[in-house]
Amino acid sequence: MSAPLFADSVASCPHTAAVIGAGTAGMATALLLARAGHRVTLFERVAVLSPVGAGLLLQPTGLYVLERLGLAAQIRASGARIERLLGTTPVGRIVLDLHYADAGLGVHGIGIHRGALSSALWSAVQATGVTLRLGSEVDLVEQASEHVIVRQRSVEAGEQFDLAVIADGTFSQLRSQVAIPHEIAVYPWGAWWTIVRDPERRYDGMLRQTYQHASRMLGIMPVGRLAASATAAMPFVTLFWSVRRVDEALLRARGLRAWKEEVLALAPEAEPLTGQIADFDQLIFATYADVRMFPWHHRRVVVIGDAAHATSPQLGQGANLALVDAAVLARCLNMHSDIPTALAAYSRARRAHLNYYQWASSLLTPVFQSDARLLPLLRDMFMGVACHMPGARGQMLSTLTGTNTGLLRGNLKLE
Ligand SMILES: Cc1cc2nc3c(=O)[nH]c(=O)nc-3n(C[C@H](O)[C@H](O)[C@H](O)COP(=O)(O)OP(=O)(O)OC[C@H]3O[C@@H](n4cnc5c(N)ncnc54)[C@H](O)[C@@H]3O)c2cc1C
Q1: β-pair partners for 57
Q2: Which contiguous run of DSSP H or E holds residue 108?
Q3: Higher confidence at residue 285 or residue 7?
């Protein structure tokens, strides 16, 4: 993709827009469209946005969009700077070792609690004159030639808009109402996630992963401070552990002690972290899926974020892709006053970048989460070496930083 992400202009023709879903994709879109002069209504099914979930890794792409939204300072203050991704086997064989700084001076990621990103976006949305509809689940999006009607079962009359942006997440109920063929495939593996304190700051600066074959994976990443916590200054980390979906109930039944023993057999140094987990209720089980569709628009409706292109979190890109979606969509709507033309330009502009990350994450996920034996063996033999080979390292770095648009296509322009 060669066009810059942002066009600084305001909308040549302001529209009324319904944005459905107040996740990263929906909030960033509502904010950018409202700032450009569009009249935006944001529908969210939950009544109160609460800081659920664990940690997220924000990449230079997502940070760039947040910078342009004026939120990066706040995000940096509550998150933790990530300089390096280090993945090893239990005996210390290096599988992945990437330094953000090798992609450019000052390049880094930010580990952050999901709730901190959500509240930064939410405060900005509230201050921007977006009409907010919390506790409003949208059930139907109907298209007519000149408008879109958004309907909720609980409200008799539908509401009319010039366009609708569907951003209702991986398991979207609205995606199938848009006349675009799509597929969803749930991964056989998910992960337990939690947030714990890192009093010794042992994990400062890096996302640390330990792998045994592809059936065991422990990840630990700093996420900075938790604003709501009594120990606000204390650094926290997110810890995740790979779990086969069909085994989740069984592992719970075997008990916390058996699970901790399994974790510590892989990484004994994680004991100060697992020691803080006293109940399975502290672990969130996350499942994930691949969503494929193209194009991402039909006439006056566009699907963005996980609803349009969910992947496994292996590459840590989903929220970043959602932020880029929002920036490109706002740019297209500012540049083209005709809505179907603007949305067609959006689908074209997002194609290479999204195709690359969907391809790369579906290729790499089984290398780290599966029952395969040969794949992880090859991974352990060659991946660490590839991290030091100039061509391969360049591709790995641009994949990590979120800018890759295809092996021979060059990188996304952050300007
Ligand atoms: C375990 C895990 C770890 C991850 N780690 C990373 C990471 O490190 N880095 C990264 O970039 N990404 C990561 N991701 C991916 C990232 O979380 C998602 O890609 C991102 O949150 C997508 O945002 P979204 O706005 O598209 O969807 P969501 O965050 O799912 O938001 C959808 C919103 O729509 C609302 N909604 C749903 N249906 C309706 C309806 N009918 N009407 C109104 N509202 C509705 C929902 O309540 C929700 O608020 C991870 C994901 C998982 C599961």
Answers
A1: 111
A2: none
A3: 285
pLDDT at 1 > cutoff 60: no
Q: What is the 3-state secondary structure (H, E, C) of 320-359?
A: HHHHHHHHHHHHHHHHCCCHHHHHHHHHHHHHHHHHHHHH
Per-residue pLDDT at 225 exceeds 60: yes
pLDDT of residue 227: 62
367 Cα: distance to centroid of ligand 1 (angstroms)? 24
The residue with tokens 């179907």 is 340
* Separation of CA 53 and ligand 1 centre (Å): 10
Sheet holding 55-58, edge to edge: 55-58, 109-113, 80-82
* Beta-strand relationship, 182-186 and 163-166: unpaired
Report the residue among 43, 56, 304 best suited for mutation to probe ligand 1: largest number of ligand atoms under 8 A from its CB.
56
pLDDT tens digits, one per residue of 39-82: 999 999 999 987 667 899 999 999 999 999 999 999 999 999 99
Give the residue, out of 27, 45, 48, 151, with the most ligand 1 atoms within 8 A of its beta carbon, to mutate for a pocket test.
45
- Residue 93 CA, ligand 1 centroid: distance in Å: 34
- Residues 180-199 have pLDDT tens digits of 999 999 999 999 999 999 98
Q: What's the rounded mean pLDDT across residues 155-169? A: 96
Region 319-344: mean pLDDT is 96
Residue with tokens 């408008």: 147
Which residues contact ligand 1 via a Cβ below 6 A? 20-26, 43-46, 56-57, 137-138, 167-169, 173-174, 191, 193, 286, 288, 305-307, 313, 316-320, 322
Q: Which amino acid is at 345?
A: A
Of 19, 24, 132, the residue with max ligand 1 atoms within 8 A of its CB, to mutate for a pocket test, comes to 24
C-alpha pair distances (Å), 391 with each of 57, 138, 319, 383, 385: 25, 47, 27, 13, 12
Indicate whether 230 pLDDT > 80: no
Centroid of ligand 1 to alpha carbon of 190 (angstroms): 15
Spatial CA neighbour of 191 closest among 224, 217, 163 = 217
Give percent helix, percent strand, percent coil of the chain, each to the nearest 5: 40, 25, 35
**How many angstroms separate the alpha carbon of residue 175 from the centre of ligand 1?**
15
